[in-house]
Amino acid sequence: MNDAGASKELNMKLRYAILSLAMAASTAAIAHTHLERSMPADKSHVQAPTAIELHFSEAARLTSLTLQKGKGAAVAIKPLPAKMIADFSLPVTALAAGDYVVNWRAVSDDGHVVSGKFTFTVDQK
């Protein structure tokens, strides 16, 4: 390969490297708030919890949180904090043995709505 061909190949590799870095940076920049963990943990078996805990990757405003036992009606857990925080702990009344689904929705600091659900089982004592 002559000098011109080697220079052109190096130029293409450099452009590819810059483009790859730009794509990686933009992907990180558009990452949204997400639920990092919950308590009870998803798919866990626990003794009756006294609170539902949500731990987000960054501050968010929790706009909806419901708890549903089996096929029963979902019950809203209230009141929800009005402030932007990353860690939520909301008390719940004594839960009977059975399977539960927690549905949540939050708004991140950048205005994006995120939502999800997790399940857990309260074991017999």
* Average pLDDT for all residues: 87
What order do the helices and strands follow? HEEEEEEE
What's the CATH class of the largest domain, please?
Answer: Mainly Beta
Radius of gyration: 23 Å
**Total domain count:** 2
Question: What proportion strand?
Answer: over 45%
Number of strands: 7
Biggest sheet: strands, sense, closure?
7 strands, mixed
Termini separation comes to 77 Å
CATH fold-level label of the largest domain? Immunoglobulin-like
Which architecture of the largest domain per CATH? Answer: Sandwich
Topology, pairings included?
Layout: H1 3-29, E1 35-39, E2 44-46, E3 51-69, E4 75-76, E5 85-91, E6 98-108, E7 113-122
What would you note in describing this structure?
The structure is a single chain. The protein has 125 residues and is α+β, with helices and mostly antiparallel strands. It has 2 domains: 30 residues; 88 residues, Immunoglobulin-like, CATH 2.60.40.1220. The chain has 1 helix and 7 strands; from the N terminus they run αβββββββ. Strands 1, 2, 3, 4, 5, 6 and 7 form a 7-stranded mixed β-sheet that branches. β3 and β4 form a beta hairpin. The longest helix is centred in the N-terminal third of the chain and has 27 residues. The N and C termini lie far apart (77 Å).
